[in-house]
Each structure stands twice: as C-alpha cells, then as structure tokens.
Design goal:
It is a single chain. This protein has 237 residues and is α/β, with parallel strands linked by helices. It has a single domain (8-236), classed as Carbamate kinase (3-Layer(aba) Sandwich), CATH 3.40.1160. The chain is built from 8 helices and 11 strands. It has helices at 28-42, 60-65, 70-94, 116-124, 142-152, 186-192, 199-207, 222-227; strands at 8-13, 47-52, 99-103, 112-113, 128-132, 157-162, 167-168, 180-181, 183-184, 212-216, 234-236. Strands 4-3-5-2-1-6-10-11-9 form a 9-stranded mixed β-sheet, with helices on both faces. Strands 7-8 form a two-stranded antiparallel ribbon. The two termini are 28 Å apart.
Length: 237
Amino acid sequence: MPDLKYKRVLIKLGGEALSKEGGYGIDHEAAQSIAKELKEVHELGAELVLVIGGGNIFRGATAEAMGMERVTADYMGMLATVINGIALQHAMEKEGMDTRMMTSISMHQLAEPYVRRRALRHLAKKRVIIFAGGTGNPYFTTDTTASLRAMEVNAEVIFKATKVDGIYTADPFLDQTATKYQNLTYLEILKDNLKVMDSTSISLCMDNNLPIIVFNLKQKGNLKRALLGEKVGTYVG
C-alpha cells in the first residue's frame, strides 16, 4: 500500500460536480463517478470528510440578486446542500462505503446533527462523513464551512475540487490568455481577489496554516495523486 502524504483530508465539492456539464440538478452517473474515486482513496487508508455545495439546485446569491431577502435565500441554499448530500451518500453506499451525513440544521429523519466529538468518532471508525447544511447560518458560504470543519476535525489539507485544473489569472473558459498558478500564498489570493474561495474561508486557513490544493476532480486519478503528494493543480499555503 502506498504511503499517503495526507492522512485526513477535507474535500470541498461544488454542487455542480453532481450535475452534467453546464447543467442543473443531479446526474446519477456524475455522482457514481465521484463515489468510485472516493472509494479508491479511502481503501488506501485516507480518512475523508466532505463538504458539499448546492449551486446545481439553488444559489442564494443569485436569488438575492433577483430580489429575495438574503437570509431566506441562504437558508434555501443550505437545504439544497442537504439534497446533494443525500444523493452523494446514496452513490457512496452503492460502492460499499460506510458513510454518515451530518447537518448544521437539525433534520433527524435524514441525518445526524453536527457534533464535533461524534464526527471524530466516525472518523476513528473509518466512516466517510458528509457535512451538509453549510454552517447553519446565513451570510456564510460552503467554502467557509469547509475551512471551519477542516479545522474542527483536524484535517491536514483542504482539497478544493473544481471544473478546472487549478487557479488561473482569469477564467480560462472566457480568457484564452489566462495562465495557471502553480503555487500561491493566502495573501496573494486575498490581495488579487482571486475567485477560488471566499475571503472568510481563505483567512481562516491562513490564520491556522491549513493548506489548500485546488484541482480538477473529474480528471480520473487526480484525487489519488494529490493524496500521494504528487503535483496536482495549484497549491495554496
């Protein structure tokens, strides 16, 4: 069995990872593909915790721009992450993985309420945890949730899974001259206002020296290579 550079990892998944390219909703094949990648690295001995977004179903920021009150829109977005969490949990359990979903908003029929000590116990029992429902508070993104939960469960790194293979000077889909960063500091991201994670989440990682690796999860094998310490995507630290 290969030596892992990172033993306990938090993986931040955008909701779009569960949908078809450019689409909305949940695509079964996309969810199952992610589950297979997760199973492969879990069997290597990695301890995995996941934070899932909800942008494929509902975006609070978009609804606010259309006139909806921000707090209401954010709570709706939190519920969207729970729907995605259920779908991802189902896909992972079809692969034979032992999972638990924990939410910041109590909904006992669907998931456990988030309790740090219980989460650590699940990890000790080699279960994969899905954190859904954001932080449970409006005005905080799921990126901030990822940074917060990573520190609470003593994760060694955040893997930010995106649809591009790292952080670029501009959106590579819109600007063909955009160039990829190999390494960045937290301050460079904040100073240049790079749209990889929101400023609150970056500041939390900076204050606690928690590295972030941004890479394309849909490129098969990237997750395993990142865990083994190979150069994948963009390293932030």
